[in-house]
Write a structure and sequence with these properties.
Length: 125
C-alpha cells in the first residue's frame, strides 16, 4: 500500500492499494505443447483448459497480482516459447522487466503518478 496524505479511498484516509499487474498471452509461439504446460503451471488449470486458453490468445493468463509475481509468470511462459506482455492494472501500460523506472511516462490512470509502479518502482529496502 502507498500512503498518500489527504486521500481517502476504501474508508482509510491516506491509504491507496498498489496496482496489480497481469500477464497477457499475445501469441502461442512455435512450441505449443510447452506453452500449454507453462500455462498449466502458472494458472493451475487442467491441460484441456490450458489449451483452450492458449487458443484464445490474446488473453489475460493471470489476475492482477504483484509486479514480481506477474514477471515470474511471464518468465515461465516466455521460457516455454509463448509471447507475453505484463500490463499495469491501473493504466494498461506495458511493463518491461528490469527497467528503472519501469515506464518513465506518467500514469494516465486516476491515481498519482508517484504511486504507480509502472512509473515509479518501489525503493529498495
Amino acid at each position: 500500500m502507498v500512503h498518500l496524505p489527504g486521500i481517502a479511498w476504501g474508508g482509510r484516509e491516506g491509504v491507496l492499494e498498489e496496482p496489480g499487474f497481469r500477464v497477457l498471452l499475445t501469441e502461442a509461439g512455435d512450441r505449443e505443447v510447452e506453452a500449454v504446460r507453462a500455462i498449466r503451471t502458472v494458472t493451475g488449470l487442467s491441460l484441456w483448459n490450458s489449451k483452450l486458453l492458449l487458443d484464445s490468445a490474446p488473453v489475460a493468463v493471470t489476475e492482477p497480482n504483484w509486479l514480481e509475481a506477474a514477471e515470474e509468470a511471464a518468465q515461465v511462459l516466455e521460457d516455454a516459447g509463448a509471447h507475453v506482455t505484463v500490463l499495469c492494472d491501473w493504466c494498461d501500460r506495458t511493463v518491461h522487466a528490469g527497467a528503472d523506472p519501469v515506464d518513465p511516462a506518467p500514469c494516465e490512470g486516476p491515481w498519482p503518478a508517484d504511486a504507480c509502479r509502472a512509473s515509479c518502482p518501489p525503493a529498495a529496502l
